[in-house]
Write a structure and sequence with these properties.
- The protein has 7 helices and 7 strands.
- With 264 residues, the chain is an alpha/beta fold.
- The protein has one domain: Rossmann fold (3-Layer(aba) Sandwich), CATH 3.40.50.720.
- Helix 3 runs parallel beside helix 4 and helix 4 runs parallel beside helix 5.
- 44% of the residues are buried.
- Bound molecules: nicotinamide-adenine-dinucleotide.
- The site of nicotinamide-adenine-dinucleotide has 27 residues, from helix 1 and strand 5.
Amino acid sequence: ANDLMQGKRGLIMGLANDKSIAWGVAKSLADAGAELAFSYQGDALKKRVGPLAAQLGSDIVLPCDVGDEDSIDALFASLKEKWGGIDFIVHAIGFSDKSELRGRYVDTSRGNFAMSMDISVYSFTAVMQRAEKMMSPGGSAVTLTYYGAEKVMPHYNVMGVAKAALEASVKYLAEDLGKDGIRVNAISAGPIKTLAASGIGDFRYIMKWNEYNSPLRRNVTIEDVGKAALFLLSDLGSGTTGENLHVDAGYHVVGMKAVDAPDM
Ligand code: NAD
């Protein structure tokens, strides 16, 4: 434990279960003394998120569907009532129709393109519109992205296009909110077996490939991501904004298959 987040309050969005990246982030923030609130999508997740929040000493568990403006407003109205201000936001939300996370990108439908962009990209901007009004200088936000935004990865398809837009939006948000001393960053996580990832075709193969070919010769964990989020959300990250911090065991620097990687 450490006291890097002592006296800071923040919202964790995107916790589904104890495999979620949001869980790794929440644990490291709570361990550093942060006071947490959680938002969940849909009643089915409430009974999962409630007990997990309680494990970290939080009883602020609120519904929010980020596809719905009223729902986001209601979430921030509740937080304002409870806390007045807020110090940090963790946005760990993405969604696409999984039937389009296999096969060819060129076959993406207009409807799923719009929905993927809405939930996976615009939602972060929508959230920051509300959060900005409750934040003081020193406020910080983190969203989650993936290397499929930068390079073509198998089956990532429309989510790759969405993550590219999300990464660009992080830069614009950093500029807009930077004038008020609020920092906005992304973490580009390597592949991790979560509920969302299970929708991606050949995910086991992708994980093996990353394990064999990344400089650290392993996959990352939600705890690895949690530590990087702690850096970006705490005062340790005071000079960093608009950044895309890769937490991928170094995979993004590699140019070809490792000489010692087994055949797959
Ligand atoms: P997860 O399934 O545990 O979390 C995804 C969350 O998004 C869920 O809690 C779900 O309820 C939420 N969500 C989806 N639609 C929503 C909506 N309309 N309103 C509110 N919430 C909604 O999976 P995860 O892998 O932890 O995903 C978290 C983030 O990390 C996502 O942005 C994902 O793209 C990103 N990411 C994941 C990986 C990976 O390999 N798992 C790698 C890089 C980035």
